[in-house]
Design a protein that fits this description.
Blueprint (H helix, E strand, L loop, with lengths): L1 H20 L8 H10 L22 H8 L12 H7 L8 E7 L11 H13 L2 E8 L2 H11 L7 E2 L4 E6 L5 E2 L1 H5 L1 E2 L5 E8 L15 E6 L8 H9 L6 E4 L16 E2 L5 E7 H8 L2 E2 L6 E9 L1 H19 L6 E7 L2 E9 L9 E11 L5 H11 L7 E7 L5 H7 L5 E5 L3 H4 L17 E5 L9 H12 L6 E5 L6 H8 L5 E3 L4
Parallel strand pairs: 1-2, 2-4, 3-6, 4-7, 5-7, 7-8, 8-9, 9-11, 10-12, 11-13, 13-16, 14-17, 17-18, 18-19, 19-20, 20-21
Antiparallel strand pairs: 14-15, 15-16
Helix pairs in contact: 5-6, 10-11
């Protein structure tokens, strides 16, 4: 009886498969179906897991299951956890592997790599069919085990066809990657990101890459600081670089090599340098990058007032000049604390009331031996290098500017945002503008986190009254996240501007 039941069940299965074979979707060539399935199992970002249900096509019908089982590319991504790796690697076949692991240090569970998995990684490295290595790991023993398994066990160097390497070390100790990079050449490597890694010498990268489009080095001690000739050699051998990020240990402190030779980086779009001001500025002058880039970000440590005026300021002026005018005007942000931050960007759109800007240049200066009011004077020296007539939007953060300073530097200003500033500091003289009207083009003013001493709004009322009496009232005034304004003051101010937005009032 049981045998007859099994025979009938098998007959039903065959009938269902025959019915499914008549469907139009089942008539697609296996190669087409496999390609459709493959697009369903590609992670969107560097460390993403597959979306839930990504492999549901396996359960549609027997034909689809067979096609999927015979398509190794569907299994080239093992997932981003060790549990996923253990479950999926036996099915991956010979497809190029995208090795991705996201393992924070606080994770619990199966956090060890067994011998079988290590052997699989070694075999992959030997057969040279790993396409991506993306590791963001907070367990040092796991990270060391993976890197060791991927390191060639041979004399000399051999080609490695990996296209992308991201080693994001989240552990409390640096991980040494010297052996891995000393045993390989990387003719196809396009993306290289090393974070909290050590490498005995950048010579391990010199002349071993040539196709890089992204280079991000955030090295850790005991990695030696590279000499200029080493770094420049790496950059020169990768002319297709679009993004470069280097921090302190990646910035040479010497100026070796012919000073007249500049590395041509004509495809560069994004440049981020952070370190000692002299090293960063020297490196900048050795790079021949495009006039217009998407983003330049510089963080300068131990910078003196003389360097700001003689090096940082001229670089700022030269880049803005070479970049050319912004279509809708230039936006500028200035922030003062124990350091100076200045950002320049393109103002969005033609609407003069629009306050957003797309930042393309950011310079952060950690000052050496400069305190108190001297920081403000140094900042004013820096923005003096900006073409003030092009600035249509300005945002000072903190008490970095008064209206008098702003009016003399930016005559064509249309929108102005003060963030966390004192009202009495911005308007130090209650009769400012009595003899000469300033900022004729100003249309919108916004105050955020405004400091109002003793609830005294008279400096602002005086400023607005002067503008109204000259027939130059503001189109809009915003006062946000600040001390509440009394209803009497609201009524007075409302009559002197086109539009008033106050989020707090008594």
């Amino acid at each position: 009886m049981e045998e007859q039941i099994r025979e009938h069940e098998w007959t039903i299965v065959k009938l269902k498969r025959a019915r499914n074979s008549l469907l139009n979707v089942s008539k697609f060539p296996s190669e087409v179906l496999g390609e459709i399935f493959r697009w369903n199992v590609i992670p969107k970002h560097d460390f993403d897991e597959l979306e839930e249900g990504s492999h549901n096509f396996l359960f549609v019908c027997h034909h689809w299951f067979q096609v999927a089982s015979r398509t190794p590319e569907l299994w080239s991504f093992w997932g981003n956890t060790l549990e996923d790796w253990t479950r999926r690697y036996p099915r991956s076949g010979s497809a190029p592997l995208d090795l991705v692991l996201s393992l924070p240090g606080h994770c619990y569970g199966n956090e060890n790599i067994d011998a079988a998995l290590c052997n699989e990684l070694q075999g992959r490295a030997t057969r040279n069919n790993i396409r991506r290595i993306h590791l963001s790991v907070g367990k040092l023993e796991v990270l060391n085990s993976i890197i060791s398994s991927l390191t060639a066990k041979c004399e000399g160097t051999r080609p490695n066809h990996v296209e992308s390497v991201i080693l994001h070390n989240q552990t409390g100790k640096p991980v040494d990657v010297s052996d891995f990079f000393s045993h390989y050449r990387f003719p196809k490597l396009q993306y290289l990101y090393l974070s909290r890694c050590t490498i005995s010498s950048l010579d391990h990268l010199t002349s071993r890459t040539g196709a890089l489009t992204v280079l991000i080095l955030s090295l850790d001690l005991p990695s030696p600081t590279p000499v200029a000739s080493q770094l420049l050699s790496i950059l020169a051998s990768n002319p297709f670089l679009q993004k470069i990020t280097l921090d302190s240990l990646g910035i040479p402190q010497d100026d070796s090599g012919p000073p007249s030779i500049r590395v041509p980086l004509h495809n560069l779009k994004n440049l981020r340098l952070s370190g000692d001001s002299r090293g960063v500025l020297r490196l900048l002058h050795r790079l021949d990058h495009p006039r217009r880039m998407d983003d330049i970000s510089l963080h300068l440590d131990n910078c003196s007032a003389m360097e700001v005026s003689q090096s940082v300021g001229p670089y700022l002026r030269g880049y803005l000049r070479d970049r050319g005018r912004s279509q809708h005007g230039l936006g500028l942000l200035l922030c003062l604390d124990s350091y100076i931050i200045i950002r320049a960007g393109d103002v969005r759109g033609t609407n003069s009331l629009l306050q957003q800007m797309d930042t393309f240049l950011s310079i952060s200066v950690e000052l050496d031996g400069i305190y108190g009011d001297a920081i403000g004077r140094t900042a004013l020296d820096l923005i003096a290098h900006v073409p003030g007539e092009e600035v249509v939007y300005f945002k000072p953060v903190g008490n970095s500017s008064t209206m008098e300073n702003i009016s003399t530097r930016f005559p064509n200003l249309r929108a102005l945002t003060f963030d966390h500033a004192s009202l009495h500091t911005m308007f130090p003289e209650p009769d400012l503008g009595r003899d000469k009207e300033t900022l004729l083009s100003l249309q919108r003013v916004s105050f955020k986190r405004l400091i109002v001493d003793d609830g005294d709004w008279r400096p602002l009322v005086t400023f607005l009254a002067r503008r109204e009496s000259n027939g130059n009232r503001l189109d809009a005034l915003e006062i946000l996240d600040s001390r509440p304004m009394s209803r009497e003051v609201v009524e007075v101010v409302k009559d002197m501007v086109g539009e008033l937005l106050v989020d707090r009032q008594d």
